[in-house]
Amino acid sequence: QSVVTQPPSVSGAPGQRVTISCTRSSSNLGAVYDIHWYQQLPGTAPKLLIYANNNRPSGVPDRFSASKSGTSASLAITGLQAEDEAVYYCQSYDKGLNEWVFGAGTKVTV
Amino acid sequence: EVQLVQSGAEVKKPGESLTISCKYSAYNIPNYWIAWVRQTPARGLESMGVIYPDDSKTRYSPSLQGQATITADKATKNVHLHWGSLKASDSAMYYCAILRMVRGGMDSYFEYWGQGTLVSVSS
């Protein structure tokens, strides 16, 4: 079972707002680690989208935002565009496994 | 400017050895580590391990330790991932990435990524 759980897919019409959840497993309750988000466009490498829960690297449009509360986090895409069709991954750290872990990814369909 | 350029795709047979490479340039990024991340359809993205090129200190993910070896050549700015004896289960896309080390690793993230190296292992 994945340490971090995401829905397999979400969809929305152009211009709409979609959200993707990322939930840490119960074995890590109480542990407070940052959540980071990546976007992987078809046939390309993942790209950092959000770091440290809610920070956008330079060049990432402000249509992308994220938040974290306790052991759950979410990524929001507002004003959905066709170019946002991609798989989005959350990533965190698992103290028990002593490694960085990724969610299984959420495919966004526009 | 940050660049990570990986070596090309490989097709190998089980039992063969393989080394893939990642040439990095990361000016103005202090204290960066280089990571290898594996991606397969079945298991998704998995961090394999990281290396600090300045002193070649490595940190392997426990779940993947022993499967491959990470080395660095600071002079040529290359990081390598080496298998002594490949298995079919090593077939994957491999990415190198710059890991921004935060809070001893616990809040770290993969800041920049190479383009990926596809490794196919089949008899």
Please provide a written account of the structure.
The complex is a heterodimer of chains A (110) and B (123). Chain A is 0% helix and 45% strand. Chain A is an all-beta fold. In chain A, the strands form two sheets. In chain A, strands 2, 4, 5, 8, 9 and 10 form a six-stranded mixed sheet that branches. In chain A, a hairpin with a 6-residue loop joins strand 4 and strand 5 (47-50). Chain B has no helices and eleven strands. Chain B is globular. Helix content of chain B is 0%, strand content 55%. Chain B starts with a strand and ends with a strand. In chain B, the strands form two sheets. In chain B, strands 2, 4, 5, 6, 9, 10 and 11 form a seven-stranded mixed sheet that branches. In chain B, strands 1-3-8-7 form a four-stranded antiparallel sheet, with no helix packed on it. The model of chain B has no long low-confidence stretch (mean pLDDT 93). With 123 residues, chain B is mainly β. Chain A binds chain B through residues 33-34, 36, 38, 44-48, 51-52, 57, 89, 91, 93, 95, 97-105, and chain B through 37, 44-47, 61-63, 95, 100, 102, 105-116.
Helix percent band of chain A: under 10%
Instruction: Assign a percent range to the helix content of chain B.
Output: under 10%
Tally of DSSP helical segments of chain B: 0
Low-confidence stretches of chain B: none
End-to-end CA span of chain B: 41 Å
What labels describe this entry?
A: 110 residues, mainly beta, six-stranded mixed β-sheet, four-stranded antiparallel β-sheet, 45% strand, B: 123 residues, seven-stranded mixed β-sheet, 0% helix, 55% strand
How are the secondary structure elements laid out?
The complex is a heterodimer of chains A (110) and B (123).
Chain A: E1 4-5, E2 9-11, E3 18-24, E4 36-40, E5 47-50, E6 64-69, E7 72-77, E8 86-94, E9 99-102, E10 106-109
Parallel strand pairs in A: 2-10
Antiparallel strand pairs in A: 1-3, 3-7, 4-5, 4-8, 6-7, 8-9, 8-10
Chain B: E1 2-6, E2 10-12, E3 18-26, E4 33-40, E5 44-52, E6 57-60, E7 69-73, E8 78-83, E9 92-100, E10 109-113, E11 117-121
Parallel strand pairs in B: 2-11
Antiparallel strand pairs in B: 1-3, 3-8, 4-5, 4-9, 5-6, 7-8, 9-10, 9-11
